[in-house]
Specification:
Low-confidence stretches: none
Largest sheet: 4 strands, antiparallel
Shape: globular
Strand order of the largest sheet: 1-8-3-6
Strand content: over 45%
Distance between the termini: 9 Å
Structural class: mainly beta
């Protein structure tokens, strides 16, 4: 019988993404076996003028690249927005394939008001 070891990894701790700001977190998954990613965006009592967008990015580099938006290192794999309604809560989940080498989550785009953001990952660390 196989035994799986799983590790909870916080990519972006629950916190405020100020209006006009970008919050990013990243993981080196080069020795992991994939996992399960959850994303959460919560608008405040006054919704943002423009929605916050969660971008999930991957990198194919041998080593973990610096945090950055989509470009030469990071490629967008998934993107979702939470709208502008007051108190709207958006939650999404994605299975992350074992082939993914590096993972980044980026929350960006909201204007007018701050929003609360969070990204947590259940990593499949080993199978024996």
């Amino acid at each position: 019988m196989s035994t799986a070891t799983k590790t909870a990894r916080t990519i972006v701790a629950s916190g405020s993404n100020a209006a006009g700001s970008t919050t990013r977190g990243r993981l080196d998954l080069s020795t992991a076996f994939g996992g399960y990613l959850t994303l959460k965006i919560t608008n405040g009592a006054t919704g943002p003028s423009v929605q916050c967008v969660a971008n999930v990015l991957v990198a194919h580099n041998a080593t973990l690249p610096a945090a950055a938006g989509a470009g030469s290192d990071w490629k967008t794999a998934f993107s979702v927005g939470n709208g502008t309604a007051a108190n709207a809560v958006g939650e999404w989940a994605l299975a992350i394939d074992p082939a993914i080498m590096h993972l980044e989550v980026e929350f960006t785009g909201n204007t007018g008001q701050a929003v609360t953001v969070e990204a947590v990952f259940s990593e499949l660390t080993s199978v024996s």
